[in-house]
Amino acid sequence: MKKLHISFAGAGKVGGALARKLYESGHSIDIVFSRTEKTGNLIADAVKASWSDKPVFPQSTDIIFICVSDNSLEDVLKRIRCNNKTIVAHTAGSYGLDIFPPEIRRRGVFYPLQTFSEGRNLNFTEIPFLIEADNTETSDALSGLASSLSRNVIYADAPKRRLIHLAAVFAGNFTNHMLTAGYEIAESAGFSNDILEPLIKETISKALELGPGSSQTGPALRNDKNTIVKHYNLLQEFPEFPEFRYLYEAVTQSIINYYNKNKR
Predict the structure, then answer these.
(1) Integer Cα distance of 130 and 132 in angstroms
(2) Which of 28, 83, 115, 185 to pair with 195, CA 20 to 30 A apart?
(3) pTM given for the model
(4) Would you state the pLDDT for residue 263?
């Protein structure tokens, strides 16, 4: 793929990871716009770009990626100033093309379905990229760029992308929070977190190999009321985390309902 001039609005985890990967792939990163100079320069320096506190981009920029929080997305898009031939694409899973102001002529979505954290070296070839655009030319440009990073590029409109974003919250964010709760409870008993690691690895491995619906175990699946009540009472020992009791009750009931329904 030919070398592109790419700029970024936003200096968070998604923007930083994309900027570094695209720079490593041979593209030129021109501007990193960020309200905070420290975080903006951290990324800009890594990719030999310039930091700016104004969302004004060079006429030569081919693509601008908008990698800001959902709450800031609409405001930032309204403030973008660029060549009317420049593609402007946001990376949000829950928003479509309708959030763009009419001044932006070439608009798209470039959503990487992955969790991003500082210091993590991700294999981009395995990350699904969900693409949407307002015309074929823009779609082809974004799909081509995504294909140079990943072998899994999918065209998905906003309704489908919103659903997969919701699925990702359950599979990723909620799973991670459950692990946090497990660690807190294990530590309260005087155990280090690594006591749960074999269980966690087998749970995830089994779910991926057999499917999570076929891999469920535990007292909720068996509807073991005695154990469930004991666990619920034990959670009273965590007054600093009262939400753990509500989580346990809600998830236990969800498991019972889900598997009873699927037995019918």
Answers:
(1) 7
(2) 115
(3) 0.92
(4) 66
